[in-house]
Amino acid sequence: MTLYVQEKRMSATPSFTPVLAPGAPERMAVIDLNAVRHNVRHLKTEIGERTLIAVVKADAYGHGAIEVGRAALEAGADMLGVAHIREGLSLRRAGIDAPLLAWMHTLNSDFSRALTGNIELGVSGWDLDAVAETAQKVGTRAVVHIKVDTGLGRNGCTLADLPALLHRAREYEEQNLVTVRGVFTHLAVADEPARTETLTQLEAFNAAVNHVRQAGLNPELFHIANTPGTLMHGQEAIPEELLGNAVRVGLGVYGLSPISSHDPEDFELQPVMTFQTFINSVKEVPAGQGVSYGLSYRTETPTTLALVPVGYADGVPRVASNASVRIYPAGAQAQTYQVVGRIAMDQMVIDLGKPGLSDPEFGYLGAPVVLFGNGENPSVTEWAEAAGTINYEIVTRISSRVDRVFIGESTSTSES
């Protein structure tokens, strides 16, 4: 389910207002497209005249690829990046015709539909030959970006194998089957900016670029920096040279920080996703009441328990039992509480701290509850720390049981 909610113009420092529209979903990830636009505009100012590739893979890290892709392009992104061809084809079916790069392929990837869909393709070995063969069959010319492994050890051509790959790429260009538009790599430790491996990768990338030019190829785009590399350029072991003439930014588009010692505000970013639901049960319990599977938590005194109707089937990490939520009751002050007991498949429990709060005058039953978001709400990073993971995973894992509700969908509502 996808809903669109009109929202007033955002201020420079957005405050949070729970979604209370009649018929609102029981559980929702509220996606602020104005925040997407703000983040993309800010990133554009950070990189100057360079090309900005906004990464919207994995359904835009769980935010909604079509809606986020459109907002990012409206705000000045030059290209969109996805991992899989099928993700790119979904954007094409939605009418997005901007330059688009996909780079993660298998032997079953549909290169034919990618080429007819005008999707640029990252290649690093066998896939170059498969793409060229498909281009000959389809009767079109493929646009490719050569990916080089400069130290991450995942996909990408090694420097040892690069000359042979470039030789084939040059032959395919001469046969009008391929155009090499870009060369790229991916950083391993840019989120730890003091580490010197980033400089080592930059040196390896520069060596790769020299090989490319010696092979007689003339690509126009060179992209190495991800979000941490982009945000931290010029600091510690991350020189501005790392930005090349294009950057691929994912997490920054969604207003999250890739650096553990920095909040999004430190980079002038605005979090995009707010995960909200509503309290669906409030009850009084005595001291010693066990809570959830394993009874790992027991109440110390008589108290009120509130039930939050989301769990690990909704993408909430089961291990994050010490995470916090913020409750907005109609008859009491909003407050942040810690989850108690184990998080279950469909629910988790909050100890409100004192008895008597089930009285309707306090308004806890049906009250909005936010797991994470902006303003005074717990942050995505707090949930990540509670789960022993990274903020990327928290937003990306929110399941399809949680409706995406988009606010700020019209360009007329975006900030200037």
Give structural attributes:
416 residues, 11 helices, disordered N terminus, 20 strands, alpha/beta, ten-stranded mixed sheet, disordered C terminus
Notes on the protein architecture:
- With 416 residues, the protein is of the alpha/beta class.
- It has eleven helices and 20 strands.
- It has helices at 33-47, 57-62, 65-74, 85-93, 111-116, 126-138, 162-174, 197-214, 227-231, 380-387, 391-396; strands at 2-5, 27-32, 51-55, 79-82, 100-102, 120-123, 142-147, 178-184, 221-225, 246-249, 273-278, 281-285, 290-291, 297-298, 303-308, 324-327, 335-340, 348-351, 368-372, 403-407.
- Strands 1-20-2-11-19-16-17-18-15-12 form a ten-stranded mixed beta sheet.
- The model is unreliable at 1-14 and 411-416 (pLDDT under 50).
Helix-strand blueprint:
Layout: E1 2-5, E2 27-32, H1 33-47, E3 51-55, H2 57-62, H3 65-74, E4 79-82, H4 85-93, E5 100-102, H5 111-116, E6 120-123, H6 126-138, E7 142-147, H7 162-174, E8 178-184, H8 197-214, E9 221-225, H9 227-231, E10 246-249, E11 273-278, E12 281-285, E13 290-291, E14 297-298, E15 303-308, E16 324-327, E17 335-340, E18 348-351, E19 368-372, H10 380-387, H11 391-396, E20 403-407
Parallel strand pairs: 1-20, 2-20, 3-4, 3-10, 4-5, 5-6, 6-7, 7-8, 8-9, 9-10
Antiparallel strand pairs: 2-11, 11-19, 12-15, 13-14, 15-18, 16-17, 16-19, 17-18
